[in-house]
Fold:
Amino acid sequence: MKKIERILVTGGAGFIGSHLAARLLKLGHIVICLDNFDPFYPESIKIKNIAPIRSNKNFILIQRDIRDKQHLENCFKGNRIDLVIHLAAKAGVRPSIDDPLGYYDVNVNGTLILLEVMRTQNVRRLIFASSSSVYGNSPNVPFSETDCVDSTISPYAASKKAGEQICYTYHHLYDFDVFCLRFFTVYGPRQRPDLAINKFTDNIINNAPITVFGDGTSSRDYTYIDDIIDGIIGAVERLKGYEIINLGESRVITLNKMISTLENSLNKTATRNQLPFQEGDVITTYANIQKARILLDYSPKWEFEDGIRKFIQWKLLQ
Structure:
């Protein structure tokens, strides 16, 4: 029988965090959800995300900011935490270009404050949510964890790389066990409203034009939420040492293909507002997941078309 743990999930009311919290509870763990309900999108969405698990006796919600060191220390002292899964961050490539200072404050300083509190409270097990954006426009595809990531092209990507670096420092100095998981374009029910699949779906349903940057040939390794959660759980069960691990589907879908899949699922045609390619966006993402297969027993199962159908079913019920 696996050990029941008390797990702090930062950003636990968000898209990925709420799915993860539900899975951890199902496995019998105690989940301490720390979320500041950042106004990047409406608080009501996050409240709805965690509504199905709010009444679970093993779910504890703390509405605080990871940069609030005193309250973070109180959280650790009061909850006997065994493991931290750090998802909290200011997300998104394009918004980070407009607010680089804000992104660094939350994503870098916030992570450092969390690590310091973990050190002083003698909690040395961490899973850190990183991003495929750290690869920038690397010509080496599929992207491998051994690739050089010295050429990030957005403040968001740079902040995630900095997070990986400071996590390694705490592994080296204080013997932290840390897995940095590089997520590749996660989608599915509860996806953030600012992301393309969700925005495009809304616009197509409401007969509004969708804004397409570039000629539609840019591509993403879209990863269904259930596969991402499987990967995180694999990391929870095997956390030891320091590793950087890609979590993707290892399949590439062009922007044009993504749009046509939405159109087919909705049985409607999108009206396109074509604009030039955006600075900071990468041309493609494509994960080499061999390391995840070996270390985490990771085996993604979702075909893109099936994942989109599942997302659309959820969307139409909102």
Remarks:
- The mean pLDDT is 96.
